[in-house]
Amino acid sequence: MSEINSFEDLEVWKRGCQLAVDVCVSTDDSKNYGLKDQMQRSAISISSNIAEGSERDSTADFLRFLRYSKGSCAELRTQLYISERIRKQLGQSSLNGSSEMISETLQLSKMLQSLINSLKRRLNPEA
Questions:
Q1: Which CATH superfamily does the domain covering 7-122 fall into?
Q2: Is the Cβ–Cβ distance between 4 and 109 less than 8 Å?
Q3: Which of 4, 18, 61, 97 is within CB 3.0–4.6 Å of 56 for a Cys-Cys bond?
Q4: How far is CA 105 from CA 6, 32, 42, 46, 100, in A?
Q5: What is the pLDDT of residues 49-58, one digit of tens each?
Q6: Is residue 72 a contact partner of residue 53, using CB atoms and an 8 Å limit?
Q7: Tens of pLDDT along 36-87?
Q8: Percent of the residues in the chain that have a pLDDT greater than 70, as a whole number
Q9: pLDDT at 14 over 70
Q10: Between the CA of residue 32 and those of 24, 79, 83, 103, what are the distances in Å?
């Protein structure tokens, strides 16, 4: 793994930020305010937790926040699935970019798990 000088160097953070933008843009005109708010919050939380954890004083703290970020990915993915089901039952078209955003949450979760595994090996090289 190459040297990380700041969270801005992390591809997973960059992609998490872009996903948050995509979710906010796609849901901007939604009238389902509760789901819209939850989706935007969980999307924003992905990259925010990466940033917050990286600025903590310990690898253990960073790991904890990476796990929060991974949880936010799962939360957003679930909300995207729910949104699609609601829209289908209401006879509405799919949320713009929904399938791509679902795919991106899966990729981000994998990237986060790889980063978690790498940091865990640094904490415990014998494992």
A1: 23S rRNA-intervening sequence (1.20.1440.60)
A2: no
A3: 61
A4: 22, 21, 11, 9, 9
A5: 999 999 998 9
A6: no
A7: 999 999 999 999 999 999 999 899 999 999 999 999 999 999 999 999 999 9
A8: 96
A9: yes
A10: 13, 12, 9, 23
- Hunting for tokens 């305010």 — which residue is that? 33
Measured on CA atoms in the order 34, 35, 36, 38, is the torsion positive or negative? positive
Other beta carbons within 10 angstroms of residue 92's beta carbon come to: 11
How far apart are the C-alpha atoms of 59 and 118, rounded to whole Å?
Answer: 11
The pLDDT of residue 127:
59
Model-level pTM greater than 0.90?
Answer: yes
Give the three-state DSSP class for 63. helix
Whether residue 7 contacts residue 55, with contact meaning beta carbons closer than 8 Å, is answered with yes
Measured distance CA(48)–CA(50) in Å, rounded: 5
Calculate the alpha carbon distances from 27 to 31, 32, 53, 54, 83 in Å: 9, 9, 27, 29, 10
